[in-house]
Write a structure and sequence with these properties.
Elements (H helix, E strand, L loop, with lengths): L5 H17 L30 H11 L22 H13 L10 H17 L7 E5 L2 H16 L4 H4 L7 E6 L5 H8 L7 E4 L9 H13 L3 E8 L11 H11 L2 E5 L24 E4 L1 H4 L7 E5 L2 H8 L30 H36 L3 E8 L2 E6 L6 H15 L5 E5 L2 E7 L7 H17 L1
Parallel strand pairs: 2-3, 2-4, 4-5, 5-6
Antiparallel strand pairs: 1-7, 6-7, 8-9, 9-11, 10-11
Helix pairs in contact: 3-12, 4-12, 5-7, 5-11, 8-9, 12-14
Amino acid sequence: MKYSDYSHWTERATQWIEKHFATIREKPVRAQTNVGDIAARLPKTPPEQPVDMETIISDFEKIVPDGITHWQHPRFFAYFQSNAAPASMIAEQLTNAIASQCMLWQTSPAATEIEEVIIDWFRQAMDLPNGFKGVIQDSASSATLSAVLSMREHATSFTGNDTGLSQHPRLRIYCSSQVHSSVDKACWIAGIGQENLIKIPTNTEHQMDATKLQTAITTDRAAGHTPAGIVLCTGGTSIGACDNLPPLLEIAQTENLYTHLDAAWAGSAMICPELRYIWNGASNCDSIVFNPHKWLGANFDCSIQFLKDPNVQRRTMGLRPSYLETPQASEITNFNEWTVPLGRRFRALKLWFLVRAYGLEGLRKRMRNHINWSAELEAKIGAHPDFTLTTKRNLSLFTFQHTPPGADPNKASAALLQKINDDGRIYLTQTLHDGAYVIRFVAGQFDCTRKDVMMAYDVITELAIVN
């Protein structure tokens, strides 16, 4: 294929995309294939000679859509949404064509400077202090790893990278059980270890208990360990739990501990002033992460990490061998020094397109709708005699169980969830909460409507009767 053929095949792809979105509501949300079905339709060996694009596109149309769980389906109510608004999709196409490697300012000045401006746009939109800077990571997992590595270096006076951890006392990281598993993985990769990730019990509101946090820190210091940092939570993946930040941050300040706030999902909603109460005190965190690819419409992958003092993370991550130096420009921003990967994509472009195409108020309206519709659904399910709400709604997320008389709620809920997802009209997922198997519902798909959300009630109650 030649560049001169690009417009022809791009038009062919565009036609497929337009038809795909025009008919997506007719498709089952979750892929209805069995393990191995798609692989069985592919050749076992690679082609020795070029295959014409007509055949390639035709094979795509025949094979791929059947094996896709449609994350852009308006009735995708599982996990957290991973959206792709049209304006963001167009920006991604341009990004793919430019194909810049944005590791340094000089390798792509526009990418670096647009990223700096976009970060500040969101800082303003979320009413964070002027001093906050930031970087666009691929996902919250990478931002959390960066923060845990910064905790390690901060606690070891920036000697961990040089000497390793063998000469240091055990480092301890603190969080609650409501944080994402990426915190566990970050402790593995950072060399801190699972045993040194201390999960603090929560109170009745599923918030980290400040008194028990202080006790754990005091006990660890007495045992000769080194407390290094605290990972806080706003909008946890399982049930949407939100820590009460001020007392935890007060402890962090007193104990000189680095703090990271995981707001991967809920952080996007902080562009709505009336919702910021759920992360009151966030401006005192050292690191904050949220994912525009979850609720704001940016294509995956796109995660913003705010930093109160970028020098801590730059000192932890930054390497500048001679071949990465920019002559006569020692003070410019090179974002590779803020992240684990050296190579970086031009992720800021889709955010630039997105915010301008919809405006902050357009994005706020979508999120407010999702929250209101979810509240309406929560009330309807809560009023049904065969269902029990297990955790109250936070923003657009709540959980429930199927509890018909005489049935085991865990087994009944699991059986109902399987029927729902096999049916295909909506897609829900589960979590374990206080030992119970519960069904999660979260609204947030970019083109979701009230009718889509209310259909969830119809499907759930219809299949519960069949169950």
